[in-house]
Amino acid sequence: MITVEGETQSIPLEKYLVGVVAAEMPASFHPVALQAQAIAARTYVIRNTDYGKKAIKPTTAHQVFIDEKVRQQKWLTAFDQYEQKITDAVKATANQIILYDEEPVSAMFHASSNGATESAKNYSGHDLPYLQSVTSPEVSSETIIMTVSELNDKLQTNWTQDDFLALQLERNSSNRVQKVKGKQQFSGREFRELLQLRSTDFILIKDGRDIAITTKGYGHGVGMSQYGANELAQNRATVEEIISHYYPQTTIGNVCTKK
Protein backbone atom coordinates (compact mmCIF):
# COMPACT_ATOMS: atom_id res chain seq x y z
CA MET A 1 0.00 0.00 0.00
CA ILE A 2 1.29 3.44 -0.97
CA THR A 3 0.61 6.56 1.09
CA VAL A 4 0.35 9.59 -1.19
CA GLU A 5 0.52 13.01 0.45
CA GLY A 6 -2.84 14.73 0.12
CA GLU A 7 -4.82 11.51 -0.40
CA THR A 8 -7.14 10.42 2.43
CA GLN A 9 -6.47 6.68 2.04
CA SER A 10 -3.49 4.55 1.10
CA ILE A 11 -3.57 3.17 -2.44
CA PRO A 12 -2.59 -0.33 -3.64
CA LEU A 13 0.76 -0.18 -5.43
CA GLU A 14 -0.47 -1.25 -8.86
CA LYS A 15 -3.47 1.13 -8.73
CA TYR A 16 -1.14 3.95 -7.69
CA LEU A 17 1.05 3.24 -10.73
CA VAL A 18 -1.84 3.78 -13.13
CA GLY A 19 -2.13 7.30 -11.74
CA VAL A 20 1.62 7.89 -12.08
CA VAL A 21 2.01 6.59 -15.63
CA ALA A 22 -1.06 8.62 -16.65
CA ALA A 23 0.54 11.76 -15.24
CA GLU A 24 4.13 11.18 -16.26
CA MET A 25 3.85 9.90 -19.85
CA PRO A 26 1.44 10.68 -22.71
CA ALA A 27 -1.16 7.93 -22.98
CA SER A 28 -0.74 8.07 -26.76
CA PHE A 29 2.77 6.60 -26.43
CA HIS A 30 3.64 3.07 -27.56
CA PRO A 31 2.47 0.37 -25.09
CA VAL A 32 6.05 -0.83 -24.59
CA ALA A 33 7.16 2.70 -23.62
CA LEU A 34 4.30 2.82 -21.11
CA GLN A 35 5.50 -0.51 -19.72
CA ALA A 36 9.02 0.87 -19.30
CA GLN A 37 7.55 3.89 -17.49
CA ALA A 38 5.55 1.59 -15.21
CA ILE A 39 8.68 -0.35 -14.24
CA ALA A 40 10.67 2.84 -13.60
CA ALA A 41 7.82 4.37 -11.58
CA ARG A 42 7.33 1.19 -9.55
CA THR A 43 11.05 1.09 -8.78
CA TYR A 44 11.04 4.75 -7.83
CA VAL A 45 8.17 4.44 -5.35
CA ILE A 46 9.51 1.22 -3.82
CA ARG A 47 12.92 2.78 -3.20
CA ASN A 48 11.66 6.19 -2.05
CA THR A 49 8.98 4.88 0.32
CA ASP A 50 11.04 1.92 1.59
CA TYR A 51 8.43 -0.53 0.35
CA GLY A 52 5.47 1.61 1.41
CA LYS A 53 6.71 2.59 4.86
CA LYS A 54 6.96 6.32 4.04
CA ALA A 55 4.68 8.73 2.20
CA ILE A 56 5.43 10.01 -1.31
CA LYS A 57 4.65 13.39 -2.86
CA PRO A 58 2.33 13.44 -5.91
CA THR A 59 4.45 16.14 -7.59
CA THR A 60 7.69 16.47 -9.55
CA ALA A 61 9.44 16.60 -6.17
CA HIS A 62 8.99 12.81 -6.33
CA GLN A 63 6.80 11.59 -9.19
CA VAL A 64 3.49 13.00 -10.36
CA PHE A 65 0.28 11.16 -9.49
CA ILE A 66 -3.28 11.96 -10.62
CA ASP A 67 -6.40 10.16 -9.40
CA GLU A 68 -9.18 8.72 -11.54
CA LYS A 69 -11.29 11.89 -11.38
CA VAL A 70 -8.44 13.99 -12.74
CA ARG A 71 -7.73 11.38 -15.41
CA GLN A 72 -11.36 11.60 -16.56
CA GLN A 73 -11.07 15.39 -16.81
CA LYS A 74 -7.78 15.08 -18.68
CA TRP A 75 -8.86 12.51 -21.28
CA LEU A 76 -12.60 13.24 -21.58
CA THR A 77 -14.08 11.00 -24.30
CA ALA A 78 -10.79 9.05 -24.58
CA PHE A 79 -10.88 8.09 -20.89
CA ASP A 80 -11.97 4.47 -21.32
CA GLN A 81 -9.42 3.85 -24.07
CA TYR A 82 -6.46 5.44 -22.26
CA GLU A 83 -7.38 4.09 -18.83
CA GLN A 84 -7.41 0.55 -20.24
CA LYS A 85 -4.19 1.10 -22.18
CA ILE A 86 -2.27 2.29 -19.13
CA THR A 87 -3.83 -0.35 -16.87
CA ASP A 88 -2.69 -2.99 -19.37
CA ALA A 89 0.87 -1.58 -19.31
CA VAL A 90 0.95 -1.74 -15.52
CA LYS A 91 -0.46 -5.28 -15.47
CA ALA A 92 2.01 -6.45 -18.13
CA THR A 93 4.87 -5.47 -15.80
CA ALA A 94 3.22 -6.46 -12.51
CA ASN A 95 5.68 -6.42 -9.58
CA GLN A 96 8.70 -5.74 -11.82
CA ILE A 97 11.40 -3.35 -10.57
CA ILE A 98 14.91 -2.43 -11.68
CA LEU A 99 17.71 -3.84 -9.56
CA TYR A 100 21.43 -3.18 -9.24
CA ASP A 101 23.36 -5.41 -6.87
CA GLU A 102 19.99 -6.89 -5.83
CA GLU A 103 18.66 -3.52 -4.62
CA PRO A 104 16.11 -1.15 -6.24
CA VAL A 105 17.88 1.54 -8.22
CA SER A 106 17.31 5.28 -8.13
CA ALA A 107 15.11 5.10 -11.23
CA MET A 108 15.33 8.70 -12.41
CA PHE A 109 13.59 9.65 -15.65
CA HIS A 110 12.92 12.79 -17.68
CA ALA A 111 10.92 13.95 -20.69
CA SER A 112 13.54 14.18 -23.44
CA SER A 113 17.29 14.38 -23.97
CA ASN A 114 19.62 16.25 -26.26
CA GLY A 115 20.83 13.11 -28.02
CA ALA A 116 22.42 11.71 -24.86
CA THR A 117 21.29 11.33 -21.27
CA GLU A 118 23.08 13.01 -18.39
CA SER A 119 25.18 11.06 -15.91
CA ALA A 120 24.40 11.15 -12.21
CA LYS A 121 27.96 12.34 -11.60
CA ASN A 122 27.56 15.39 -13.84
CA TYR A 123 24.13 16.14 -12.35
CA SER A 124 24.71 15.63 -8.65
CA GLY A 125 28.36 14.70 -8.16
CA HIS A 126 27.44 11.13 -7.19
CA ASP A 127 28.69 8.51 -9.66
CA LEU A 128 26.27 5.60 -10.09
CA PRO A 129 27.11 2.75 -12.50
CA TYR A 130 23.54 2.51 -13.75
CA LEU A 131 23.07 6.27 -14.33
CA GLN A 132 25.70 6.92 -16.96
CA SER A 133 25.36 9.01 -20.11
CA VAL A 134 23.92 6.92 -22.97
CA THR A 135 22.60 7.79 -26.41
CA SER A 136 18.95 8.71 -26.86
CA PRO A 137 17.25 8.91 -30.27
CA GLU A 138 14.80 11.79 -29.88
CA VAL A 139 15.41 15.38 -31.01
CA SER A 140 13.63 18.32 -29.38
CA SER A 141 14.46 21.99 -28.99
CA GLU A 142 12.79 25.21 -27.93
CA THR A 143 13.72 28.87 -28.32
CA ILE A 144 12.43 31.56 -25.97
CA ILE A 145 13.05 35.30 -26.03
CA MET A 146 13.89 37.16 -22.80
CA THR A 147 14.59 40.83 -22.26
CA VAL A 148 17.77 41.89 -20.53
CA SER A 149 15.62 43.24 -17.71
CA GLU A 150 13.87 39.87 -17.26
CA LEU A 151 17.20 38.06 -17.17
CA ASN A 152 18.61 40.44 -14.59
CA ASP A 153 15.49 40.09 -12.43
CA LYS A 154 15.66 36.31 -12.43
CA LEU A 155 19.42 36.07 -11.93
CA GLN A 156 19.67 39.00 -9.50
CA THR A 157 22.33 40.58 -11.70
CA ASN A 158 22.83 43.98 -13.30
CA TRP A 159 24.30 43.04 -16.66
CA THR A 160 24.12 44.49 -20.13
CA GLN A 161 23.18 42.56 -23.25
CA ASP A 162 26.87 42.32 -24.10
CA ASP A 163 27.57 40.83 -20.67
CA PHE A 164 25.07 38.05 -21.37
CA LEU A 165 26.43 37.41 -24.86
CA ALA A 166 29.97 37.22 -23.44
CA LEU A 167 29.10 34.45 -20.99
CA GLN A 168 31.34 31.39 -21.27
CA LEU A 169 29.35 28.15 -21.21
CA GLU A 170 31.52 25.30 -19.96
CA ARG A 171 30.04 22.02 -21.21
CA ASN A 172 30.41 18.51 -19.85
CA SER A 173 30.61 15.13 -21.55
CA SER A 174 26.89 15.10 -22.44
CA ASN A 175 27.14 18.58 -24.00
CA ARG A 176 25.14 20.16 -21.20
CA VAL A 177 26.29 23.35 -19.53
CA GLN A 178 28.15 22.52 -16.32
CA LYS A 179 29.28 26.08 -15.51
CA VAL A 180 28.29 29.56 -16.65
CA LYS A 181 31.19 31.99 -16.34
CA GLY A 182 31.00 35.76 -16.56
CA LYS A 183 30.94 38.66 -14.12
CA GLN A 184 29.32 36.13 -11.81
CA GLN A 185 29.52 32.32 -11.96
CA PHE A 186 26.59 29.89 -11.89
CA SER A 187 26.36 26.15 -12.21
CA GLY A 188 24.39 25.00 -15.24
CA ARG A 189 21.68 23.68 -12.93
CA GLU A 190 21.41 26.99 -11.07
CA PHE A 191 21.21 28.95 -14.32
CA ARG A 192 18.53 26.64 -15.70
CA GLU A 193 16.46 26.74 -12.51
CA LEU A 194 16.65 30.51 -12.09
CA LEU A 195 15.60 31.11 -15.70
CA GLN A 196 13.18 28.13 -15.73
CA LEU A 197 14.78 26.71 -18.87
CA ARG A 198 13.75 23.32 -20.24
CA SER A 199 17.25 21.85 -19.86
CA THR A 200 20.90 22.62 -19.18
CA ASP A 201 21.83 22.26 -22.86
CA PHE A 202 21.34 25.88 -23.93
CA ILE A 203 22.85 28.70 -25.98
CA LEU A 204 22.33 32.46 -25.79
CA ILE A 205 22.03 34.52 -28.99
CA LYS A 206 21.39 38.21 -29.66
CA ASP A 207 17.84 38.98 -30.77
CA GLY A 208 17.56 42.72 -31.33
CA ARG A 209 17.74 44.24 -27.86
CA ASP A 210 16.76 40.91 -26.29
CA ILE A 211 18.37 37.51 -25.77
CA ALA A 212 17.18 34.33 -27.51
CA ILE A 213 17.82 31.15 -25.53
CA THR A 214 17.62 27.84 -27.35
CA THR A 215 17.48 24.64 -25.30
CA LYS A 216 17.73 21.01 -26.36
CA GLY A 217 15.84 18.35 -24.41
CA TYR A 218 13.46 18.75 -21.50
CA GLY A 219 14.26 17.86 -17.91
CA HIS A 220 17.35 17.02 -15.88
CA GLY A 221 18.40 14.42 -18.43
CA VAL A 222 19.28 11.63 -15.98
CA GLY A 223 18.03 8.07 -16.45
CA MET A 224 15.31 7.11 -18.90
CA SER A 225 14.20 9.58 -21.53
CA GLN A 226 10.45 9.17 -21.97
CA TYR A 227 10.39 10.39 -25.56
CA GLY A 228 13.49 8.33 -26.26
CA ALA A 229 11.81 5.25 -24.82
CA ASN A 230 8.84 5.87 -27.09
CA GLU A 231 11.05 6.13 -30.18
CA LEU A 232 12.90 2.94 -29.22
CA ALA A 233 9.57 1.17 -28.73
CA GLN A 234 8.34 2.36 -32.12
CA ASN A 235 11.50 0.83 -33.56
CA ARG A 236 10.59 -2.53 -32.01
CA ALA A 237 12.76 -2.42 -28.88
CA THR A 238 11.45 -4.58 -26.06
CA VAL A 239 10.79 -3.23 -22.59
CA GLU A 240 13.83 -5.17 -21.35
CA GLU A 241 16.00 -3.53 -24.03
CA ILE A 242 14.75 -0.06 -23.13
CA ILE A 243 15.40 -0.57 -19.41
CA SER A 244 18.87 -2.05 -19.96
CA HIS A 245 19.75 0.81 -22.34
CA TYR A 246 18.82 3.65 -20.00
CA TYR A 247 19.84 1.85 -16.80
CA PRO A 248 23.00 -0.09 -17.77
CA GLN A 249 24.28 -2.94 -15.59
CA THR A 250 20.82 -3.49 -14.08
CA THR A 251 18.41 -6.41 -14.09
CA ILE A 252 14.62 -6.55 -13.85
CA GLY A 253 13.50 -8.35 -10.71
CA ASN A 254 10.36 -8.88 -8.68
CA VAL A 255 9.29 -6.52 -5.91
CA CYS A 256 7.74 -9.38 -3.95
CA THR A 257 11.14 -11.01 -3.42
CA LYS A 258 12.71 -7.85 -2.00
CA LYS A 259 10.70 -7.25 1.19
TrEMBL record:
Signal peptide: none annotated. It comes from the Bacteria. Pfam families: SpoIID (PF08486). Residues 8-100 form the Sporulation stage II protein D amidase enhancer LytB N-terminal domain. Coiled coil: none annotated. GO terms for cellular component: outer membrane-bounded periplasmic space. InterPro entries: Bact_Sporulation_Assoc (IPR051922), SpoIID/LytB (IPR013486), SpoIID/LytB_N (IPR013693), Spore_II_D_firmicutes (IPR014225). GO terms for biological process: sporulation resulting in formation of a cellular spore. This is Stage II sporulation protein D. It comes from Metasolibacillus meyeri. The lineage of its organism: Bacteria, Bacillati, Bacillota, Bacilli, Bacillales.
